[in-house]
Amino acid sequence: MKRHIPNIITCLNLLSGSIAVFLATGDQFEIAFLFILLGAFFDFWDGLVARKLGVSSKLGIEMDSLADNITFGLAPSMMLMCYLLPLLGGWSFIALIMAAFSALRLGKFNIDERQKTSFLGLATPANAIFWGSITCLPYQALCQPWGPWCLLALSLLSCWLLVCEIPFCSLKFKSFAWRDNYDKYVFLMGTLIIIIGCSIKAFIASNIYILTYAGAPIILWYVLVNVTLFIIGAKK
């Protein structure tokens, strides 16, 4: 029975992503985003449980990628498309390209031996959290008429980030030494500041959903840290 436990958790990830897709079609973006976060929770545990129980399998790896493409590929793409549909009409369907690039990102990850301790390209869960958080913003936050077009262009940039060769740190610690983990510590310190700021804003506004806004700046900070370190490293 224990060999089925990780696959059950993976199926819960897929189910969470499927519910997020359904909710996106009804413009219930805040709840859809919460289901993406729930899917990320299950995605973290399925591999860990499989390793702890010693039941890792090729079937589990394939199922994990399929579930991830629903939860972290199709779901955020559908959310962005539905979010932009009233503003851009048919042009909003361009957002679905992210689902295709997410599948490509996951396929590359499965066969790339270089991505055992870090990532090459932006991980699909991070991309999904960014766009899920963006769709929780009220339309007034777009400010200018060209705001929706900027989001659509940014979605194409994120497609490139998913498959680029820029190294992105993972949050796996082999030691806690600053020298070995300075990128992780810089990211985590910035993340803490963002969460505190959003928590204060949510408390003042008495609106817990404001916390969902934290996802976008956290991922933006993550990208900024890693791209900056990559540029510095390239210059050296």
Overall 3D geometry? globular
CATH class: Mainly Alpha
Corresponding CATH architecture: Up-down Bundle
By DSSP (H or I, 4+ residues per run), the number of helices equals 8
Main β-sheet: number of strands, strand sense, barrel status? 2 strands, antiparallel
Give the distance, in angstroms, between the N- and C-terminal Cα atoms: 52 Å
- Beta-strand residue percentage: under 5%
Strand order of the largest sheet: 1-2
Structural account:
The protein is mainly α and 236 residues long. The chain has one domain (2-235): CDP-alcohol phosphotransferase transmembrane (TM) domain (Four Helix Bundle (Hemerythrin (Met), subunit A)). Helices cover 72% and strands 3% of the residues. The chain has 8 helices and 2 strands; from the N terminus they run H-H-H-H-E-H-H-E-H-H. The chain has helices spanning 5-25, 29-53, 58-88, 97-111, 124-134, 147-163, 178-205, 215-235, and strands at 118-120, 167-169. It has a two-stranded antiparallel sheet with strand order 1-2. Helix 1 runs parallel beside helix 3, helix 4 packs parallel to helix 6 (147-163) and helix 5 crosses helix 8 (215-235). The longest helix has 31 residues, at 58-88. It is globular. The model has no long low-confidence stretch (mean pLDDT 87).
Structure characteristics:
236 residues, mainly alpha, Four Helix Bundle (Hemerythrin (Met), subunit A), two-stranded antiparallel ribbon, 8 helices
Write the layout of secondary structure elements.
Layout: H1 5-25, H2 29-53, H3 58-88, H4 97-111, E1 118-120, H5 124-134, H6 147-163, E2 167-169, H7 178-205, H8 215-235
Antiparallel strand pairs: 1-2
Helix pairs in contact: 1-2, 1-3, 2-3, 2-5, 3-4, 3-5, 4-6, 5-8, 7-8
